[in-house]
Amino acid sequence: MPQELSLAAVQEVLSGFMDPETGRDVVTMEQVTNIHLEDGHLTCDFGLTTHSAAIWTSKRAEFEQYLRDNLDGLTDLTVNHVVHQRSATPLGEFGLTIKSVIAVGSGKGGVGKSTIAASLALGLQAAGSRVGIMDADVYGPSIPQLFGVNDAGSPAVNEQKKIVPIDASGIPVLSMGFLVPEGEAVIWRGPMLHGAVTQFLRDAAWGELDYLIIDMPPGTGDIALTLSQVIPLTGAVVVCTPQKVALLDAVKSIAMFRKVNIPVLGMVENMSGFICPDCDKRYDIFGSGGAKTEAEALDVPFLGEVPITTSIREHGDAGTTSESLTDASSSAYLTSIVETLVGNMAGSAKQSPPQPQLPVLG
């Protein structure tokens, strides 16, 4: 006769399932509550944080399958998903209450880096995460345009003398584009760039966020070094197009991030083929699959591809980039990248983020 399932056995099995945000077991993190067991029928509330929102559905399914596979005597299972509240630990010397800071960079301009950065922020928000975006591309700030807030004016300053980011439908946004007249060039050297980026982090009222996305300038300049020195970055996402000339620069970008001890979370292949809106046929204008091949060679996760679609360009020009997340021609690609990124990050322990090692110059 099989032994009757007990609450003690349930607790023991639960202690083997890990929270995707912290990498610690869900019993220790108090994420399984209202446990009730009767005649082999287990019911419980399973809590995941908003940081893990992009993978709620897959994690709940994984949790349920884990219980079915490991609980002898289980006859029925009811799992209710709830949101588990967990505050962010103050991050870096500025005390930012942000759980993950992700830089989005590229080896060269013109590869759609800002569009991918904006889409990441919007995709994370659509899933249920609290997200902000900082436009560190001071020479060509395009985030205000992509979010439709380029006419928002200069950010206000609150009573604590903190810059209040512009609200873009629930996403706080800071950009040099709010401070410099449109069409005017920014001509700055390294120290001025360092000061601007530091101020955007130190003197801004970002609030409590799950993610801060930082849109980097193209190339391998000073800002990556500044970020590595002032804040513990979770990692970087590198955007490139499929052709070899772009991949050569992407490889340099990855080398730069690694040199300043910023983990590379993955590569995105943008403009990966053109999908004709009239016939739905795909044309590989710049080639295809180059980023995936290069990612494998460099031991970097490949997050996905985004083809050229008219709708992404139209939404960017109109300042309605959020609609690319619901447009049939682009939504599946962008949503998949967000889910893959968060899924790859799952399980990394972030209770006490390590301070970055400063690179040795000279």
Q: What do you see in this structure?
A:
The structure is a single chain. By secondary structure, this protein is α/β, with parallel strands linked by helices. The chain folds into two domains: 10-83, 2-Layer Sandwich (GMP Synthetase, Chain A, domain 3), CATH 3.30.300; 98-340, P-loop containing nucleotide triphosphate hydrolases (Rossmann fold, 3-Layer(aba) Sandwich), CATH 3.40.50.300. It is 31% helix and 22% strand. The protein has ten helices and twelve strands. Strands 4, 5, 6, 7, 8, 9, 10, 11 and 12 form a nine-stranded mixed sheet that branches. A three-stranded mixed sheet has the order 1-2-3, covered by helices on one side. α3 (113-127) crosses α10 and α5 (190-202) packs parallel to α6 (222-230). The protein starts with 6 loop residues before the first helix and ends in a 17-residue tail after the last helix. The relative contact order is 0.15.
Q: Mean pLDDT, rounded to whole units?
A: 87
CATH homologous superfamily title of the largest domain? P-loop containing nucleotide triphosphate hydrolases
Question: Which CATH class of the largest domain applies here?
Answer: Alpha Beta
Number of domains: 2
Oligomerization category of the chains in this entry: single chain
Helix content: 25-40%
**Helix/sheet category:** alpha/beta
Total strands: the figure is 12
User: What is the CATH third-level topology name of the largest domain?
Assistant: Rossmann fold
| Coarse morphology | globular
Question: Uncertain regions: pLDDT < 50 for 5+ in a row?
Answer: 349-362
Beta-strand content? 15-25%
Radius of gyration (Å): 22 Å
Number of helices: 10
How can the largest sheet be summarized? 9 strands, mixed
What is the first-to-last residue Cα distance? Answer: 73 Å
CATH architecture of the largest domain: 3-Layer(aba) Sandwich
Secondary-structure element pattern, one letter each = HEEHEEHEHEEHEHEHEEHEHH
